[in-house]
Amino acid sequence: MNSPQTTQAPEVIAEVRGKLGMITLNRPKALNALSLGMVRDLLATLLAWQKDESILGVAIRGSNKEGVFGAFCAGGDIRFLHAAGSSGNPQLEDFFTEEYALNHLIHSLGKPYIAFMDGIVMGGGMGISQGGSLRIVTERTKMAMPETAIGLFPDVGGGYFLSRCPGAVGEWLGLTGDTIGAGDAVAFGLADGCIPADQQADLWETLATTPFANVEALNAVVRARFVSAEPRLAAHRAEIDACFGLPSVAAIEQALLAGSDWAKAVAQTLRKRSPLMMHVVLEQIRRARKMTLAEDLRMERDMVRHCFYLRPGQSETLEGIRALAVDKDHHPRWNPASIEDVTDAQWQAFFVSPWPAHSHPLVMLQD
Questions:
Q1: Which of 20, 107, 115, 360 could staple 131 via S-S, CB 3.0–4.6 A?
Q2: Which residues are CB-contacts of 283 (< 8 A; sequence separation ≥ 6)?
Q3: Is the peptide bond before 354 cis (omega within 30 degrees of 0)?
Q4: What CATH number is given to the structural domain containing 214?
Q5: What's the pLDDT score for residue 310?
Q6: Shared-domain flag, residues 302 and 367
Q7: Listed residues 232, 249, 272: the one ending a domain
Q8: Into how many domains does the chain fold?
Q9: pLDDT at residue number 5
């Protein structure tokens, strides 16, 4: 008697329904964290759909253990990054090069790209949504770029989209990794509108079954569903700008410690993050304000090489992932250990490209 064959469900489900290409991220046990295979599937699918004139636009959503929606994407697969970075697996390099190419493609797709950013939207999940033309959040959205907690920086174009938030909001989100909800995401320019979570399935089906005459009609159907969402952090905006607009990490921390109870709590958060990477992130966001997306992604590709390979035996990223996701002791041994111990030379090294411009892995990206 033959044993039944078990076929693994695809991690990316892509189908064309009506006028739309529709993508469901289908790795719910990992909160749809992006594997190299998922990045490759998404890139191949979007490249094909970009050229297909019968496809008017793209919609993308995540799945959870009970079904669809509820979780969009928690980021990149950090366990893979730790294993690959620890063993010298060359797929680590492929992952970042191809992921950043995917991020760029979404920004430059030339068609509507509708991201249903329900539930957790962090790290790599921001990378596959921020380039969208309609970024939809819900009352369940938990949005963050939490990379400094694992000794990394807000990559996937984070320098580009965080630097375009109002005031010093980008510096605050990038250095702290704090989580925001729907109202603040819209207020900070990281989402286009909010819809109730229980209306997502109906809107998804409407997109799949409506014979849209043009892009304008498609956009109008989505925008008609938007509801107001209260920003919760409006009262702290002046303090965010005053503190995180300061020229150095040390000055930011001191200003926070002298501020409101909310600011003092933020200062405590900074004390848990990688001191070195906070210096790197502050410079990243400020450089990126004057960059195109392609320039920013090339800079981030340089930076990520430094994170994993160019400080031998001292990778903040491998140590941060170890403490958070591998050993789970939540006590990373940051090096340097404090904000005051970081030298200019240490953070400046991250902005020296390992490649000549003509041989850069992302030389093909054009804005």
A1: 107
A2: 347, 348, 350, 351
A3: no
A4: 3.90.226.10
A5: 65
A6: yes
A7: 232
A8: 2
A9: 54
- Residue 164 falls inside a structural domain: no
Active centre residues (catalytic): 76, 124, 147, 155
What does the alpha-carbon distance between residue 126 and residue 88 come to, in Å, rounded to a whole number?
27
> Which residues contact residue 128 at a Cβ distance below 8 angstroms, ignoring those fewer than 6 apart?
34, 42, 60, 73, 102, 103, 106, 115, 156
By residue range, what is the domain housing residue 207?
Answer: 1-144+181-232
pTM (predicted TM-score): 0.95
Helix (H) or strand (E) holding 241: helix 237-244
Q: Please give the DSSP secondary-structure letter assigned to residue 180.
A: B
The per-residue pLDDT for 9 is 86
| DSSP element (H, E) containing 86 | helix 78-87
* Composition of the chain by helix, strand, coil, percent to 5: 50, 10, 40
Using the CB atoms, write b or e for 194-220: b if 16+ within 10 Å. Answer: bbebeebeebbeebeeeebeeeeebbe
Say how many C-beta atoms besides its own lie within 10 A of residue 102's C-beta: 24
